[in-house]
Amino acid sequence: MANIEIYTTTTCPYCSRAKALLKSKGVSFNEIIIDRDDGLRTQMMERSGRRTVPQIFIDEQHIGGCDDLYALDARGGLDPLLN
What we know:
single chain; 83 residues; alpha+beta; Glutaredoxin; four-stranded mixed sheet; 4 helices; globular
């Protein structure tokens, strides 16, 4: 099973959509909530090169944000990464 990490904030609707897609795939993931932790936010920005949430990593590969995750799924690229 893939190691999935997703950086989120508690009020982000895109984070909720991304988590819903992953849950619908039946996979577990490590949610890293960055709301009140500047160190985690900095870590996310260093790893992804982006400031926005969510930022999703599958087996250390940066997938991107919510739209990127859904686009990857739409072209059939998500399931192979999850298995």
